[in-house]
Amino acid sequence: MNCSDELIIGFDPSFIPKSGKKTPEIGYFYSGCKGNYDRGLEIGCFSIIDVKQNTAYHYKAVQTQNENSSDTENTLVDQYISFLAAKH
After folding, report:
1. For the segment 17-57, what is each residue's pLDDT rounded down to a tens digit?
2. H-type helices in 1-88, by residue range?
3. For residues 62 and 60, what is the distance between their CA atoms, to the nearest angstrom?
4. Are 68 and 39 in contact, with CB atoms under 8 Å apart?
5. HSE of 71 in the Cβ direction (CA atoms, 13 Å)?
6. What is the distance between the alpha carbons of residues 32 and 86, in angstroms, rounded to a whole number?
7. What is the torsion angle, in degrees rounded to the nearest 10, for the CA atoms of residue 82, residue 32, residue 38 and residue 25?
8. Which of 55, 48, 26, 52 lies closest to 39 in space, CA to CA?
9. What residues does 29 pair with on adjacent strands?
10. Whole-model pTM?
11. Cβ atoms of 41 and 19 closer than 8 Å
12. Residue 83: strand, helix, or coil
């Protein structure tokens, strides 16, 4: 990959509709298409954006935990920050 010297990190939380009852971390997340919260899953997608070449490269995708998960006491924004800070 030949990138320019002008890079930024992009982040896009993406909603995935899901209706099952046994899917881990299913909850209510914001759906930009519907303009409100809906039942499903969310993944946080990071990309490296090359501003000069007008190109984005996928970097990492992480599943968001729902707000009722017993595994976290973090807010949604805290989770997003921890995704970026993770070393893997």
Report:
1. 988 888 888 989 999 889 999 999 999 999 999 999 999 99
2. 76-85
3. 7
4. no
5. 6
6. 26
7. -20
8. 26
9. 38
10. 0.74
11. no
12. helix
